[in-house]
Design goal:
Rossmann fold; Dihydrodipicolinate Reductase, domain 2; 9-stranded mixed sheet; 17 strands; binds 6-O-phosphono-beta-D-glucopyranose
Length: about 500
C-alpha cells in the first residue's frame, strides 16, 4: 500500500549566526583521504555559503612530495565531487597552500613557521590559527612537540591571537593511552583550545535530537521510563574494511565506532536537559549521563555484549569476501567487525529501560538510526484486540542515508468497519529543506573557527567513555570464547538477536 504523505510547513525561522574572525587552518596529513574527501570540500562549501571568515587560508602539510600547484589541482579534483556546484572554485583554491616535509624533521617546522608568518601577513589573520591533526595518532606527539618548539602555539583559545587544535579520532587506544595523550596535549594547550572531533555530532539529524527534545514541550514529559520501553541505536554499514584494514584490524569495531559515535548519540538521547546550549552546560550533562551507565564487568559482559566478524556473503545480490579474506587482514584475525550491546542507565529517568546499541560492517545496507520504542497501551477498548497486538509507537531519528524523523502511530482506516493499522508520520529532511543536508564536517569546522566547543568532546567525556569500554576490551583480550560470525549482508547476528530475546525485544530491520 502506498505510504500516506505528510505535509510539513516551515513557519517561524530562528537562526543564530555569528561570523568567524579571520584565521588560517593548517592541516597535517593534507595529502590524505580525509582532507580530500571531507575537509577541503567542507571548507569550500562554507566558502560558497559565505560562512568562512572574510580572510582565510588553508595550509596543507604532509610527507607526500607535492608542489603547491599539484596540491591545488588535487583540491580542484576533490571539489568536483562536492555537493555544492563548483562556483568560484578558483578563488577558493588560490587560498590553499602546501608544504611537504617529514613530521620528525626540524626543517619542516622552520619552513612551516616562515610560511605561516607570510600567510598571516598576506591574509591579515592576526596570527589566529587552527591546526588540524589528520595524521595517524602515532604522529600527534611529534607534531605537537615541534609546534611548541617553534613557538607556534599562543596560549589563548579566544583572545587574539588565538590557537586551536582539532584532533581526529581515534583519541587513544584504551583508557591508559588516551589519558597519556591527553596529558601531552595539556602540556602545551588549555582544554578550551583542544577540539576532539567526532563527525557524528556534525550530522544534522544528530543535532536535531537536542532541538527535538528541548525546543518542543510535548516530548520531554514522556521521555522517561514511564513511557519508553527501550531504545535502539543502530549504525550499520554495507561496506567492509576496504583499504583501511591495516588500521581497522588493530582497532576493531568497538574502538572505531562505540567509544565515540555510538556513545555520543546515546548521550544526546538520554542526557538531562542542560541549563543552556553553552558548550560546558551540554557537556556537563553528557558527563553525568556517562557516569550513570551501569559499568561493564566480567559478569554482565557475557550477557550484554556480543562481538562478531563477517564471513563471506552477498550484498545487494553481489558476492563479497569474508573479513579474513580481505587484503592485509591476517587469516586468523579475531578482530570484531560487529558489536551489539545492552546498556542500562542507573538514574531516575532511565532505570530499567534497556538501550540496545549495535554497529557493524557488511550489513545488508547503510543505515544509522535511533529508535525510541514506547510502551504498549495499558488497556485496549477495542475488544477482542489485545494491547499486545498493536505495534508500539516508535519515534525514529533517521541519521542516514535518508535524514529525517518518523513516528509510527495507530490509525483508523476510512470506512464503516472498525479497522486499524499502523502508519508512519514521516518527516524527510530532503522534502522540506531541499537537496541534501550539509556535510557534517562543515558545521564542526565552522564551530571551531567560532570558538564553540559544544559539538566537540571534552576531556572528561572522552575519559568516561574509555572507562566504560576498556573493561570489555580487557575481557575480550583474555577471554577464551573469541568471536561469533555472521554472513555478510545478513540481517541476523544470532547472538545479538538472543540478547534482545532475553527481554522479548527484537531488532528493527536494517
Ligand atoms: C568512522 C569510522 O569514524 O566512521 C569508519 O572510522 C566508519 O570505520 C565511519 O566507516 C562511518 O561514518 P559515516 O559518516 O559514513 O557513517
Amino acid at each position: 500500500m502506498p505510504r500516506p504523505k505528510t505535509k510539513f510547513t516551515i513557519r517561524d525561522e530562528f537562526c543564530i549566526e555569528t561570523k568567524a574572525k579571520p584565521c588560517g587552518m593548517i592541516i597535517f596529513g593534507a595529502s590524505g583521504d580525509l582532507a580530500s574527501r571531507k575537509l577541503i570540500p567542507s571548507l569550500y562549501n562554507l566558502y560558497c555559503r559565505q560562512l568562512l571568515p572574510t580572510t582565510f587560508y588553508v595550509l596543507g602539510c604532509a610527507r607526500t612530495p607535492m608542489t603547491e600547484h599539484e596540491f591545488r589541482d588535487k583540491a580542484r579534483q576533490s571539489l568536483r565531487s562536492s555537493k555544492i556546484e563548483t562556483i568560484n572554485c578558483e578563488k577558493f583554491v588560490k587560498s590553499c597552500y602546501y608544504l611537504s616535509g617529514d613530521y620528525g624533521d626540524i626543517k619542516t617546522y622552520a619552513a612551516l613557521s616562515a610560511k605561516i608568518k607570510n600567510l598571516n601577513k598576506q591574509y591579515s589573520t592576526n596570527n589566529n590559527r587552527i591546526f588540524y591533526l589528520s595524521t595517524p595518532p602515532s604522529i600527534y606527539q611529534i607534531i605537537m612537540d615541534n609546534l611548541q618548539k617553534n613557538d607556534l602555539f599562543s596560549d589563548s583559545a579566544d583572545k587574539q591571537p588565538w590557537t586551536r587544535i582539532i584532533v581526529e579520532k581515534p583519541f587513544g587506544y584504551d583508557l591508559t593511552s588516551a589519558l597519556k595523550l591527553d596529558k601531552n596535549f595539556h602540556n602545551y594547550l588549555n582544554e578550551n583550545q583542544i577540539y576532539r572531533i567526532d563527525h557524528y555530532l556534525g550530522k544534522e539529524t544528530v543535532q536535531n535530537i537536542l532541538i527535538f527534545r528541548f525546543a518542543n514541550s510535548i516530548f520531554e514529559p514522556i521521555w522517561n521510563r514511564n513511557y519508553i520501553d527501550h531504545i535502539q541505536i543502530t549504525v550499520a554499514e554495507s561496506i567492509g574494511v576496504g583499504h583501511r584494514a591495516g588500521y581497522f584490524n588493530k582497532s576493531g569495531l568497538l574502538r572505531d565506532m562505540f567509544q565515540n559515535h555510538m556513545v555520543q548519540m546515546l548521550s544526546l538521547v538520554a542526557m538531562e536537559p542542560p541549563v543552556s546550549f553553552k558548550a560546558d552546560h551540554v557537556r556537563d550533562q553528557k558527563a553525568k549521563l556517562l557516569e550513570s551507565i551501569n559499568p561493564f564487568n566480567i559478569k554482565n559482559i557475557k550477557n550484554s555484549v556480543v562481538r562478531a566478524q563477517y564471513k563471506k556473503g552477498h550484498i545487494a545480490g553481489k558476492p563479497v569476501k569474508g573479513y579474513r579474506d580481505e587484503d592485509n587482514v591476517p587469516a586468523e584475525s579475531i578482530t570484531e567487525t560487529y558489536v551489539a550491546m545492552k546498556i542500562m542507565i542507573d538514574n531516575w529517568r532511565w532505570q530499567g529501560v534497556p538501550f540496545y546499541l549495535r554497529s557493524g560492517k557488511r550489513m545488508p545496507s547503510k543505515k544509522s538510526e535511533i529508535a525510541v520504542v514506547f510502551k504498549k497501551i495499558p488497556h485496549c477498548i477495542f475488544s477482542p484486540i489485545s494491547p499486545d497486538e498493536f505495534s508500539r509507537n516508535t519515534l525514529v531519528f533517521n541519521v542516514q542515508p535518508e535524514e529525517g524523523i518518523e513516528l509510527g502511530i495507530q490509525a483508523k482506516h476510512p470506512g464503516p468497519k472498525l479497522c486499524m493499522s499502523s502508519l508512519t508520520m514521516d518527516f524527510k529532511w530532503r522534502n522540506i529543506f531541499g537537496s541534501q543536508p550539509p556535510e557534517a564536517y562543515e558545521r564542526l569546522l565552522l564551530d571551531c573557527m567560532l570558538g564553540d566547543q559544544t559539538l566537540f568532546i571534552r576531556h572528561d567525556n572522552m575519559k568516561l567513555s574509555w572507562e566504560l569500554f576498556t573493561p570489555i576490551l580487557e575481557h575480550w583480550a583474555k577471554s577464551e570464547k573469541k568471536l561469533d560470525f555472521y554472513e555478510a549482508g545478513s540481517q541476523t547476528v544470532q547472538e545479538a538477536d538472543n540478547l534482545l530475546k532475553q527481554n522479548a525485544h527484537k531488532w528493527r530491520e536494517i
